[in-house]
Design a protein that fits this description.
The protein is an alpha+beta fold. The protein is about 20% helix and about 35% strand. It contains 4 helices and 9 strands.
């Protein structure tokens, strides 16, 4: 399992892309997708709503459990991935590509996001 170097990661297992025009993309990591099992339902934040770093902003339901989705940054939701709403299995099959969850116009970014190497070490325990 490799974690893309260009992304940053939260200890809650979300990834964050570099901002383009102030907007970053958020998803869950391959590690989290594997731990969840087959994702069968996603509840994502609404476009126009605001999210706060470290706080729950949705849910992912799998065949094993229901898990909270946490925002790695604070900001306004600009887009949700309708493909994942319609086909939640994308979270499992392409967590870093087609399985992204939402885009957020970042207003505040915590200082505790991890690099790919730091996140790899974190999940290794």
């Amino acid at each position: 399992m490799s974690n893309p170097q260009q992304l940053r990661y939260s200890k809650e297992h979300e990834w964050l892309s570099a901002a383009e025009d102030g907007v970053s993309t958020v998803g869950i990591t391959e590690h989290a997708a594997n731990a969840l099992g087959d994702v069968v339902y996603t509840q994502l934040p609404e476009v126009g709503s605001t999210v706060t770093a470290g706080e729950s902003c949705g849910e992912l339901e799998s065949t094993k459990s229901v898990s909270d989705l946490y925002s790695p940054v604070s900001g306004e939701i600009t887009e949700v991935n309708e493909d994942v709403v319609n086909d939640p299995s994308l979270v499992n099959t392409a967590p870093f590509e087609g399985g992204w969850l939402f885009k957020v116009r970042v207003t505040d970014e915590p200082g505790d996001l991890l690099s790919a190497d730091e996140y790899t070490a974190f999940i290794a325990g």
